[in-house]
Structure to design on (350 residues):
C-alpha cells in the first residue's frame, strides 16, 4: 500500500500562481509514483479569484482539495487549518507563490525515508528580494538564535516535511499566537535541514508588508523567549546602581565643597525624560506578554471554515467515557454517526 503525503498550501490572493502551482505539483506527482498525494490549499480570505480557480482545479484533479476560511486568519491560521484536515503519513508545508520549489519535494521524502520525523528547508540565499529585506531577515534569525540558545535552526523556512506523529503533536497545541517554526522546534522529534536557495515569486507581489513581517517576528520573540522580561530586570538594576552612585557622588561633593544646591536643571530634566522613556518601553514589553495571555484566555479558534470541497464537512470531535477491562475498552454508551467524527477522546476508568 502506498504512503499518503499531504501537501498543505496557504494561499492569500495568489490567483496568478495557482495554475502554475497545479502544473508543477502534478509533474512532481508523476515522478514520485511510489506515493499517493493530496493537496490541501487553504484559501485565506482572498479578494481575488483564487476560490473560483481552486474549484476548477479540483474538477481537473480531485487530489487538489481546498478550504475557504471566513476571513484572513494570517499565515499561521491557514497553516493550522490545513494541518487539521491533513490525513497523510506525512505532511509537507509550502507556500503558494512557488518560492518553495515543488521540485525539491523528493529531497524531503528521501530524508523522511531515512528515519527523520521533521525535514526543514535551510535558506542559503533569498532571491528576488531587496537587500534591506534580506539583511533584516538575517538579523532576525541571528537574534532568535541568541534569544533561544540555538533552539531554533537558523534560516529555517516554513517549507518542511513532518511525519504523522509530529504534525499530530503540532495539532494538539492550542495556542492562539502561533509561531510555526518555533512550535515545530518545540515539539522536538528527530529533525534535519536541507540547504538550498529560496526562489523568487513566480508572479504577483509579496502579501506580507513590513508591518505584517514585523508583527510575526515580534510574535516569535515574545512567544519563545523571556529575554525581554529579563532585560527589564537587568536594565532596571543597572539604572538603580548608577543612580545610587550618582547620589553618593553628590553627597560627597556637598560635604567636600559645601554646596547647598546642584547646578544643571536641564541635565536633570533630560535624565528624567530619558528614564520615563525607558519606563514606558518596559511597560510596553510587559503589555506584549499580557496581551498574549489575554488572547489565550479568550480561547478563540485559530480559523473558521466558510466553504470546502474534497474534504470532510467538519472536524467534529466527541468525548466518551469507558472502562478498560481484560484488554478491552467498554464504552458507557454507543458511538453514533461515527463516519462524521474526526477524533474521539475516551476517558478510561481502570
Amino acid at each position: 500500500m502506498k504512503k499518503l503525503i499531504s501537501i498543505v498550501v496557504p494561499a492569500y490572493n495568489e490567483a496568478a500562481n495557482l495554475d502554475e502551482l497545479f502544473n508543477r505539483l502534478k509533474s512532481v506527482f508523476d515522478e514520485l509514483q511510489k506515493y499517493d498525494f493530496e493537496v490541501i490549499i487553504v484559501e485565506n480570505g482572498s479578494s481575488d479569484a483564487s476560490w473560483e480557480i481552486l474549484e476548477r482545479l479540483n474538477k481537473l484533479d480531485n487530489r487538489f482539495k481546498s478550504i475557504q476560511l471566513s476571513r484572513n486568519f494570517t499565515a499561521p491560521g491557514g497553516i493550522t487549518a490545513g494541518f487539521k484536515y491533513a490525513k497523510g503519513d506525512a505532511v509537507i508545508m509550502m507556500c503558494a507563490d512557488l518560492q518553495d520549489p515543488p521540485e525539491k519535494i523528493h529531497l524531503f521524502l528521501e530524508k523522511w525515508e531515512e528515519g527523520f520525523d521533521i525535514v526543514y528547508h535551510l535558506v542559503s540565499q533569498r532571491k528576488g528580494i531587496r537587500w534591506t529585506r534580506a539583511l533584516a531577515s538575517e538579523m532576525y534569525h541571528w537574534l532568535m538564535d541568541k534569544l533561544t540558545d540555538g533552539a531554533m535552526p537558523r534560516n529555517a523556512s516554513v517549507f518542511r516535511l513532518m511525519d504523522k506523529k509530529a504534525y499530530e503533536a503540532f495539532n494538539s497545541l492550542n495556542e492562539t499566537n502561533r509561531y510555526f517554526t518555533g512550535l515545530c522546534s518545540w515539539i522536538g522529534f528527530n529533525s534535519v535541514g536541507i540547504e538550498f536557495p529560496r526562489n523568487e515569486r513566480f508572479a504577483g507581489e509579496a502579501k506580507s508588508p513590513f508591518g505584517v513581517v514585523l508583527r510575526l517576528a515580534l510574535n516569535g520573540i515574545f512567544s519563545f523567549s523571556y529575554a525581554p522580561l529579563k532585560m527589564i530586570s537587568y536594565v532596571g538594576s543597572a539604572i538603580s546602581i548608577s543612580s545610587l552612585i550618582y547620589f553618593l557622588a553628590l553627597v560627597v561633593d556637598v560635604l567636600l565643597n559645601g554646596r547647598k544646591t546642584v547646578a544643571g536643571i536641564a541635565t536633570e530634566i533630560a535624565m528624567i525624560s530619558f528614564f520615563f522613556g525607558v519606563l514606558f518601553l518596559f511597560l510596553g514589553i510587559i503589555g506584549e506578554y499580557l496581551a498574549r495571555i489575554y488572547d489565550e484566555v479568550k480561547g478563540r479558534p485559530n480559523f473558521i471554515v466558510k466553504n470546502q470541497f474534497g474534504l470532510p464537512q467538519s472536524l467534529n470531535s466527541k468525548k466518551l467515557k469507558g472502562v478498560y477491562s481484560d484488554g478491552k475498552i467498554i464504552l458507557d454508551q454507543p458511538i453514533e454517526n461515527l463516519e462524521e467524527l474526526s477524533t474521539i477522546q475516551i476517558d478510561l476508568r481502570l
Observations:
- The chain has a mean pLDDT of 76.
- The chain has ten helices and eleven strands.
